Amino acid sequence: MLVCGGPIRDGELANGAFYQPTLLEVDDSQADIVQQEIFGPVLTLQVFDTEREAIDMANATEYGLSASIWTSDLNRSLRVAREVEAGTIWFNDWAVMRDEFEEGGYKQSGVGRLRGQSTLEDFIEVKHIVLQPGVVED
């Protein structure tokens, strides 16, 4: 259900696939709009009754780049963050990046890392050489 926003209907952009900032309320966690990465000003809203239901909804996707937990309960935020399958989780904030922390996700969002020490791993080749004394002959 469209809460606000939607396609641009007037002006030059009306002939394209352009959306104004849009909020959609969605009842089905398996809907394409929830399951696919939407690169645009479109946000989905899902209503939940329990903490467990919210965690299950958050994890019911093949992606896991980032998440935000909005609450005044510090214990809840930490408890939920441990169970949400995402590479970065913000508390009462969103999209705050710091150079010293890696950025990367889980599942299909988990290829590679940006920033932080983990970034260097993409440029390192590891070699293991094992020598067992008494096994090698001249």
Keywords:
two-stranded antiparallel ribbon; Ald_DH/histidinol_DH; 17% helix; 3 helices; 138 residues; three-stranded mixed β-sheet; alpha/beta; elongated; Aldehyde dehydrogenase family protein; Ald_DH_N
How large a portion of the residues is in β-strands, by DSSP E?
15-25%
Rg to the nearest angstrom?
Answer: 22 Å
Q: Given the structure, what is the number of helices?
A: 3
Helical residues, percent: 10-25%
| SSE order | EEHEHEEHEE
Low-pLDDT runs of 5+ residues are: none
Q: Strand order across the biggest sheet?
A: 1-2-3
Q: Structural class of the helices, strands and pairings?
A: alpha/beta
| Terminus-to-terminus distance | 77 Å
Structure characterization notes:
The protein is α/β, with parallel strands linked by helices and 138 residues long. Helices cover 17% and strands 21% of the residues. Strand 2, helix 1 (32-35) and strand 3 form a beta-alpha-beta unit. The longest helix has 10 residues, at 74-83.
Brief rundown of the structure:
With 138 residues, this protein is α/β, with parallel strands linked by helices.
What is the fold's blueprint, element by element?
Elements: E1 2-7, E2 19-25, H1 32-35, E3 42-45, H2 51-59, E4 63-64, E5 66-69, H3 74-83, E6 88-91, E7 106-107
Parallel strand pairs: 2-3, 5-6
Antiparallel strand pairs: 1-2, 4-7
